[in-house]
């Protein structure tokens, strides 16, 4: 604190004193403010602290209530007998068995032929596959009555379901299911081949793939070296056996050429054989591999 | 470009609502992107149409291009027509159906052209294995009338075709013949099924309206179904006839299932039965001839309406099998005679 300077005249020393007083005043108000702020912060802290305590208490109470409930439920099940723990273990063992059985029933799906009992009969699920790829599933809901009948199904319209049912459903249901499996798996396989050709080997096709719903007539033109000088081949694949995934008749012709040179004729004939013996997309895969080999030979 | 073609395209485009115009033009794929970009679609419709006709003239649109536009319009506005269903059959022991779309189209067109000389036939394939066929009919001496075409939707490798009910009934036998021969069938018969909703007809005819199947992989518990009852869960309220309500609910669920019903607008019953009455000696009961009577049920969604009759208390459950057999028998026109 400054002392009033006695050497200064009155006015000036007043200014000095007043200024001093003013300074003291601002100091006091500042310290008031600070202490107020401090107080409010402390108050908030206190409030939050009590809130935390409250919530902790509530949490502990709820935890205790849950524990109590669980124990009482278990006690109810065990009927408050001396060997309660044994009963609880049996219960858990049964639950585990049930989960196991449920999982096995779900996994049956992968065998290709599975089913589930319904209130009126059974719902059979045929899961089709081709070359290890799981494809679409189809359902047939059967009503177990005399006569056995199909309630509803998801088999496509062009699969001869009514014919197969007329032949086998009443006399030999196993034969009915296996026959239907054959048709559906073959259809799925043919469809898979056609889809793969369209998606993976579009570069080798010189025009759109012509197909029908059953995928039993495929017609396309292709070139072994797209953009190259060779003539395109026209292939027409007929699958007269609806239970097969390989064609029964194959015709390969060379577009725009009347008479082929011997090398082209050999190639044409070999292609015909290939289409008859190997799945469509595999044949085209071998074409691309051959193409790559040719490229490599050019490089070296 | 012929004036008649221009007029036809103009009238077709005028029918299209503005909000669908760009989608339909893109699907048509006749005018190029560049050309379409030059059109100001915010103008008044007449100006837009004029501009589009001008562009079509630049590209020399033919009648087949115009027919494609008409098919696309009809695909977007299927409900404007009433559709009939035809079922074809083959002889016993036929070869496997190796359906060839090119062969079918050629054969179909040839048969109609040989018979009528003047006929416009157009095809448009869809992704669901269906082909839309548009036929504008003429005669030996008159040009085809483009404004009254017949549309056929044929699902290849199935025996079914759906046709728009045409006013020109005299061409129906020829159409049937063309379809049958081109698709390598022997006979064609009209089913007693008719509706505006092509999708629902397809679902009924192909028996695809119920696609819910029980499997071990599904996680929906069976109890969820019964909650449709919408009964107050308050235990202080006792419903006196809850047993009856549950019985009705169960029967309705067994008859109609849990799936959405296909959409039909009406069911028609032609009765030719003798009058049956409990009272003896009534005048009508003495009639020897059968009474002729036509009963028609109409609704925006007939099957859903029938499904809600018993739960609403308007009819007893189970409903008459004449009403509940509609999707199963694939009919909504019935002729009932005394046995």
Fill in the keyword field for this structure.
heterodimer, A: alpha+beta, Copper Amine Oxidase, Chain A, domain 1, 6 helices, flat, B: 339 residues, alpha+beta, S-adenosylmethionine decarboxylase, Ubiquitin-like (UB roll), 3 domains, six-stranded antiparallel β-sheet, three-stranded mixed β-sheet, CENP-O (chain A), nucleus (chain A), chromosome (chain A), Centromere protein O (chain A)
In short:
Chain A has six helices and seven strands; from the N terminus they run ααββββααβββαα. Chain A is α+β, with helices and mostly antiparallel strands and 300 residues long.
What does this structure look like?
The complex is a heterodimer of chains A (300) and B (339). Helices cover 55% and strands 16% of the residues of chain A. Among the domains of chain A are: 109-186, Copper Amine Oxidase, Chain A, domain 1 (2-Layer Sandwich); 190-294. In chain A, α1 (10-78) packs across α2. In chain A, a hairpin with a 5-residue loop joins β3 and β4 (149-153). The termini of chain A are far apart. Chain A has 300 residues and is α+β, with helices and mostly antiparallel strands. Chain B has 339 residues and is an alpha+beta fold. Helices cover 36% and strands 19% of the residues of chain B. In chain B, the strands form two sheets. In chain B, strands 2-3-4-5-1-6 form a six-stranded antiparallel sheet, sandwiched between helices. A three-stranded mixed sheet of chain B has the order 8-7-9, with no helix packed on it. In chain B, β2 and β3 (130-137) form a beta hairpin. In chain B, α1 crosses α4. The model of chain B is unreliable at 221-228 (pLDDT under 50). The interface between A and B is medium-sized, with 28 and 24 residues.
């Amino acid at each position: 604190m400054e002392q009033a300077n006695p050497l200064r005249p009155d006015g000036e020393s007043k200014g000095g004193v007043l200024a001093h007083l003013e300074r003291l005043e601002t100091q006091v108000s500042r310290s008031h403010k600070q202490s107020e702020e401090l107080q409010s912060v402390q108050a908030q802290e206190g409030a939050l602290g009590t809130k935390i305590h409250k919530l902790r208490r509530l949490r502990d109470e709820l935890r205790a209530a849950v524990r109590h409930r669980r124990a009482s439920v278990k006690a109810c099940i065990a009927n408050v007998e001396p060997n309660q723990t044994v009963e609880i273990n049996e219960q858990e063992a049964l639950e585990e068995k049930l989960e196991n059985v449920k999982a096995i029933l779900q996994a049956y799906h992968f065998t290709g032929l599975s089913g589930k009992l319904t209130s009126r009969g059974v719902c059979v699920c045929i899961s089709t596959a081709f070359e290890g790829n799981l494809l679409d599933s189809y359902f047939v809901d059967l009503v177990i009555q005399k006569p056995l009948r199909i309630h509803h199904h998801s088999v496509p319209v062009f699969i001869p379901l009514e014919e197969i049912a007329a032949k086998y459903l009443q006399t030999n249901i196993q034969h009915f299911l296996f026959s239907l499996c054959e048709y559906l798996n073959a259809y799925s396989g043919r469809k898979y081949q056609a889809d793969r050709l369209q998606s993976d080997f579009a570069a080798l096709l010189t025009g759109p793939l012509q197909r029908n719903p059953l995928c039993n007539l495929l017609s396309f033109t292709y070139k072994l070296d797209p953009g190259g000088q060779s003539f395109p081949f026209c292939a027409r694949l007929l699958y007269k056996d609806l239970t097969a995934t390989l064609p029964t008749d194959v015709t390969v012709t060379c577009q725009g050429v009347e008479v082929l040179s011997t090398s082209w004729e050999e190639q044409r004939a070999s292609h015909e054989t290939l289409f008859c013996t190997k799945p469509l997309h595999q044949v085209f895969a071998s074409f691309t591999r051959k193409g790559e080999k040719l490229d490599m030979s050019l490089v070296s | 470009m012929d004036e008649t073609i221009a007029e036809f395209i103009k009238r077709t485009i005028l029918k299209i609502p503005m909000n669908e115009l760009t989608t339909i033009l893109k699907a048509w794929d006749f005018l190029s992107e560049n050309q379409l970009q030059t059109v100001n679609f915010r103008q008044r419709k007449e100006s837009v149409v004029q501009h589009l006709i001008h562009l079509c003239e630049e590209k020399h649109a033919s009648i087949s291009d115009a027919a494609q536009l008409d098919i696309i319009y009809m695909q977007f506005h299927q409900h404007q027509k009433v559709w009939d269903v035809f079922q074809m059959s083959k002889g016993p022991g036929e070869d496997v159906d190796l359906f060839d779309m090119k062969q079918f189209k050629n054969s179909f067109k040839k048969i109609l052209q040989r018979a009528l000389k003047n006929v416009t036939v157009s095809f448009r394939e869809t992704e669901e294995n269906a082909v839309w066929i548009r036929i504008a009919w003429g005669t030996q001496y008159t040009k085809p009338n483009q404004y009254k075409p017949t549309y056929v939707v044929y699902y290849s490798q199935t025996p079914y075709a759906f046709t728009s009910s045409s006013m020109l009934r005299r061409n129906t036998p020829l159409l049937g013949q063309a379809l049958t021969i081109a698709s390598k069938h022997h006979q064609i018969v009209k089913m007693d099924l008719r509706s505006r909703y092509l999708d629902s007809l397809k679902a009924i005819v192909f028996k695809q309206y119920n696609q819910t199947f029980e499997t071990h992989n599904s996680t929906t518990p069976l109890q969820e179904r019964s909650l449709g009852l919408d009964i107050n869960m308050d235990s202080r309220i006792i419903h006196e006839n809850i047993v009856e309500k549950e019985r009705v609910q169960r029967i309705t669920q067994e008859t109609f299932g849990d799936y959405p019903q296909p959409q039909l607008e009406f069911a028609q019953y032609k009765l030719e039965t003798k009058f049956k009455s409990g009272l003896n000696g009534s005048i009508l009961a003495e009639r020897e001839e059968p009474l002729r009577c036509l009963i028609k049920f109409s609704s925006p969604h007939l099957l859903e309406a029938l499904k809600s009759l018993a739960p609403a208390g308007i009819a007893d459950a189970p409903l008459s099998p004449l009403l509940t057999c509609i999707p199963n028998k694939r009919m909504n026109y019935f002729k009932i005679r005394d046995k």
